[in-house]
Write a structure and sequence with these properties.
Elements lengths: L49 H17 L4 H18 L2 H17 L6 H13 L3 H14 L4 H14 L2 H15 L4 H13 L3 H16 L6 H17 L3 H14 L4 H13 L3 H14 L3 H13 L3 H17 L8 H10 L4 H12 L5 H13 L3 H11 L7 H13 L3 H14 L7 H12 L1
């Protein structure tokens, strides 16, 4: 079996490993944790893990070449490929992980090879095949009921598919198994708190997760930087740009090339009116990581800076990247639909795409995508229905409030429109460089 292949032309952000969760349902009550820290620890520079990982991959690749029946080596190789995919944002490593996991399961079936099934489930989650990830995670909990990681993966998939009550029950089961919350559980609880509108509790959970991650014998640079970045995202969501910047800088101190934090710093510069700094920041990110979300953001700041031709080039690139990667599991369907809606392009196509995804992945942000694209397609009743679904958790998200306000305005509900737009801009006045400007103008027109 050959694992070394040429690099693909495009390297893409995949958003997996430690995932952002979209939750819903108004019944959830937060569980207490063992410790609530007042502030995150200081940010030391974490040791890079790249060289050791590359050497381990080379060793294991040679090992499976010599012995194609070594399923244990395939499992370890798959795990390392997944790690490299997180570190490099290179799609090829995901493909290699899938091949290694499937080779392992071919040699030894899942009933006697939970490691192979575990790696395959991680791959499925990374490529947004959440139905398969859920089913395989359930199988893992049956094959190895004492392993909490299987339940965490199951909860992750359930959240992405909109089964929120079952997901929360699953995470609480992990807490019982572990006599409390570890770093991975704290991360999930933080996301749940955010989606229920409790940013303060979310910050506490992320801080706990960070402290627990730093307390590991060999802290993971990836996990530590991710927690710091999420603390920044939590602050940014409430318009606390100073605190957000501090956390983003801490993430970059831990992991200098952490591109999520670099992109967030660019967005923060745009929020502060520094378009030149935002352009410079986004250009640096997309040069190495042409993720459609970041490419679209670069186009927006070009547009605001009056650089229309360059903005148009970035918008064209968004479509090109998304369409080129449909064969890789349609990772960017939702992002492309929202991009179209934000920029008043291909309204019917965007709506159909959002509806198609929501039929399977019924999370609140999927409902929001249906609502926003329905509005742009002139389907006001559908937009109102989907927006109620998107807001049912009580999530305090400026973008959700903005969408709700624009939908209410289109429906002639002036008072509701004004209320939602005011809530959006009060929560985070610069939640998006282009859309916040539209929201401000819409609110002024309603006053």
């Amino acid at each position: 079996m050959r694992f070394l292949t040429a690099k693909r032309v495009t390297s893409l952000a995949l958003g997996f490993g430690i995932l952002c969760f979209n939750n819903c349902g108004g019944w959830w009550e937060p569980s207490p944790t063992r410790t609530m820290l007042a502030a995150p620890p200081a940010a030391p520079l974490a040791a890079p893990e790249d060289m050791a990982t590359r050497r381990a991959i080379q060793f294991l690749e040679e090992r499976v070449r010599r012995d194609t029946e070594d399923f244990s080596a395939y499992n370890r190789l798959a795990a390392l490929y997944l790690q490299r995919a997180r570190e490099t944002d290179n799609q090829e490593y995901l493909d290699l992980a899938a091949r290694a996991a499937r080779a392992s399961l071919t040699v030894m079936p899942a009933e006697r090879n939970v490691g192979g099934l575990y790696a395959l489930t991680q791959y499925e989650h990374a490529t947004h095949n959440f139905v398969a990830a859920r089913d395989h995670a359930k199988q893992l909990t049956e094959l190895d009921p004492g392993k909490s990681d299987s339940y965490l993966m199951l909860g992750d998939a359930l959240i992405e598919l909109g089964n929120y009550e079952e997901a929360t029950i699953t995470f609480r089961q992990v807490q019982r198994m572990n006599n409390g919350s570890g770093a991975q559980t704290e991360m999930r609880l933080a996301r749940l708190a955010t989606l229920h509108g409790d940013h303060t509790r979310a910050s506490h959970h992320f801080t706990n997760a960070l402290a627990l991650a730093l307390n590991m014998p060999v802290p993971s640079r990836d996990a530590v930087a991710w927690c710091r970045w999420q603390l920044g995202e939590t602050a940014f969501a409430t318009g606390d740009y100073e605190t957000a910047e501090r956390h983003y800088r801490d993430a970059l101190t831990t992991y200098t090339e952490y591109r999520n934090a670099r992109a967030s710093m660019a967005r923060l510069r745009a929020a502060r009116g520094d378009l030149a700094g935002a352009i410079e920041g986004y250009e640096g990110v997309v040069r190495h990581l042409p993720d459609p979300v970041f490419v679209a953001a670069l186009g927006d700041v070009y547009k605001l800076a009056g650089r229309e031709r360059e903005a148009a080039a970035q918008y064209a690139l968004v479509e090109q990247i998304a369409r080129l990667n449909e064969v890789n599991g349609a990772l960017y369907n939702r992002q492309l639909a929202l991009f179209y809606a934000d920029h008043d392009m291909n309204a019917e196509e965007a709506y159909r795409s959002a509806v198609r995804e929501y039929e399977v992945r019924r999370d609140i942000y999927g409902a929001d995508a249906v609502a926003w694209t329905a509005l742009k397609a002139g389907k006001i009743n559908e937009a109102q229905t989907a927006m109620r679904d998107a807001l049912r958790l009580g999530t305090r998200d400026a973008r959700l409030f903005y969408h709700a306000g624009m939908i209410a305005r289109a429906a002639g509900e002036v008072s509701a429109a004004r209320d939602y737009l005011q809530r959006s801009l009060a929560l985070n006045p610069q939640f998006d460089p282009l859309q916040a400007l539209i929201a401000t103008r819409a609110l002024e027109a309603l006053s």
